[in-house]
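Technical annex, item 7. During the second reporting period the consortium partners agreed on a shared format for inverse folding records so that results from different sites could be compared directly. Each record opens with the tokenized structure and is followed by the designed sequence. A conforming record, contributed by the partner at site C, is shown below for reference.
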């Protein structure tokens, strides 16, 4: 008993060390780069797991705590984060933070009218970095009046007379008066200097009083000043170059033009801000969203229910046939019928799309047999039939497998008693097989309904939501709610709108959750009825 206890403790300690090391690495990475609240949540979950595994009095929670922690991480947190995002304008043009936007603006400079443009000569260190960096360079700068200066990132700009004191001895002068060396820096020949221009643009901005000197080309190093001035107290932003004053509004800087129209500052994105329930209000009141919503919702429900019913019916039929003991080649038939389930679904859908094209095999054969050309992707009702047919092909093997398992769990003596009572096959199926089968597979059918309610892949891969009633329509005739949400939030002309997509996703979540809860209650009632009967 002692040895078993010792081994158990050692195993527990080693497992906790591995879990803690992984969690700590995850906390640091997520906390510094993504989300502090999520990192804190992971840390708390890890501490709880350590607590229940260390103290034996909480042993009943040892196998529950990791599952609850994963549920919180993979289910609860995404749901909370979706709610949070739905209350913001997070999306294209509002992806960064306020500090990131201000940092971009701080890197913007312009050349004032009274600024001087120097002609630069580039000098590089005797021992440059690999690759060369800003600190590896010194500039010899000559202004339009012929006065020379020496500048670097570390020491700024000094006059030629003070250069030796700051940078070291100046080498032999050329005919243009440019030294061959400045301290430990050698002049770069003009042909070789071209490859350093981009490095100088990005990394060498030398402060000179109110100005900043930056190399723009081999012949130009103008004095620049910071273009934007931000007032943290009022939230105003002044464009010094144009004199335009901007103010913060909904995560962007805006101003009014001469016609009184609101104009957004160009060249820089915005940041996400809280806009309350605006995304939800837009989903309810916007005609472009609300208009096709009802028809899309009806088709979504029809698609989900029909898919569950047809796949279950066909799967159950094959399961009953294969459950017959004396059927020949039962193993072969079972293998062949499972093939659609074994193939990757997206490959099967793309194959079916090719078969249903105007020149595809199915369309061509149909036309040759019945002299009718079927436009599977051009007419709404044909496109919907195609989707249901392809989904039936993909879904019936799963229903067949679970039905076969459920059928084998039904006691055979029930059928023997039914035969003695004179019940025919249909009566046996209706009174025994189906009720007992529904107790077992009912929850799985509910899961299948929820899956098909959000079955984005088959819609996108097979019809892409089409056909559309007109070119301007957002929703196609085969779009379900999830694909409709995708087109509204991600496939429009205004770019990606994560906030609006999150709001629509919550609507779908509430619908599916409500239907699922109702179906689970119904399934529980069935279970109680047949278990008592």
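Designed sequence (site C submission):
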């Amino acid at each position: 008993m002692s040895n078993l206890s010792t081994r158990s403790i050692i195993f527990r300690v080693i497992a906790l060390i591995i879990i803690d090391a992984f969690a700590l690495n995850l906390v640091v990475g997520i906390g510094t780069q993504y989300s502090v609240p999520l990192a804190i949540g992971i840390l708390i979950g890890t501490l709880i797991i350590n607590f229940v595994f260390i103290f034996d009095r909480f042993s009943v929670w040892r196998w529950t705590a990791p599952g609850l922690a994963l549920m919180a991480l993979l289910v609860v947190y995404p749901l909370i984060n979706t709610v949070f995002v739905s209350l913001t304008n997070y999306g294209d043009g509002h992806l960064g933070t306020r500090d990131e936007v201000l940092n971009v603006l701080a890197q913007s400079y312009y050349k004032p009218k009274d600024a001087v443009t120097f002609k630069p000569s580039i000098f590089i260190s005797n021992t440059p970095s690999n690759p060369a960096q800003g600190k590896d360079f010194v500039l010899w700068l000559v202004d339009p009046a012929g006065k020379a200066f020496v500048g670097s990132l570390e020491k700024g700009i000094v006059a030629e007379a003070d250069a030796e004191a700051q940078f070291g001895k100046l080498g032999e002068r050329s005919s243009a008066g440019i030294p061959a060396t400045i301290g430990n820096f050698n002049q770069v020949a003009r042909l070789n200097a071209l490859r350093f221009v981009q490095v100088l643009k990005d990394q060498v901005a030398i402060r000179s009083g109110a100005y900043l000197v930056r190399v723009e080309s081999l012949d130009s190093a103008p004095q620049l000043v910071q273009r934007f001035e931000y007032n943290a107290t009022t939230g105003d932003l002044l464009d010094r170059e144009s004199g335009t004053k901007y103010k913060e509004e909904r995560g962007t800087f805006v101003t009014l033009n001469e016609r009184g129209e609101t104009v957004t500052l160009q060249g820089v994105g915005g940041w996400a801000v809280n806009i309350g329930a605006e995304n939800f209000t837009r989903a309810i009141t916007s005609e472009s969203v609300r208009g096709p919503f009802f028809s899309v919702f009806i088709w979504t429900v029809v698609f989900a229910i029909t898919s569950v019913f047809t796949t279950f019916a066909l799967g159950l039929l094959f399961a009953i046939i294969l459950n017959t003991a004396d059927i020949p080649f039962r193993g072969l038939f079972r293998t062949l019928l499972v093939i659609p389930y074994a193939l990757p679904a997206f490959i099967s859908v793309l194959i079916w799309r090719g078969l249903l094209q105007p020149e595809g095999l199915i369309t061509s054969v149909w036309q040759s047999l019945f002299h009718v050309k079927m436009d599977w992707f051009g007419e709404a009702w044909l496109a919907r039939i195609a989707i249901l047919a392809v989904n039936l092909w993909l879904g019936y093997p799963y229903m067949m497998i679970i039905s076969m398992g459920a059928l084998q769990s039904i006691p055979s003596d029930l059928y023997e008693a039914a035969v003695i009572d004179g019940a025919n096959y249909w009566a046996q199926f209706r009174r025994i097989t189906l009720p007992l089968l529904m107790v077992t597979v009912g929850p799985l059918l509910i899961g299948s309904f929820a899956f098909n309610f959000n079955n984005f892949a088959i819609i996108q891969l097979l019809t892409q939501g089409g056909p559309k009633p007109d070119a301007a329509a957002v929703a196609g005739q085969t779009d379900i709610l999830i694909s409709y949400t995708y087109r509204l939030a991600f496939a429009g002309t205004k770019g990606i709108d994560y906030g609006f997509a999150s709001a629509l996703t919550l609507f779908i979540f509430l619908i599916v959750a409500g239907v699922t809860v109702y179906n689970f209650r119904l399934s529980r009632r069935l279970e109680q009825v047949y278990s008592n009967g």
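The mean pLDDT is 88. The chain has four domains: 2-86, 112-225, 228-276, 284-532. All partners now use this format for quarterly exchanges.
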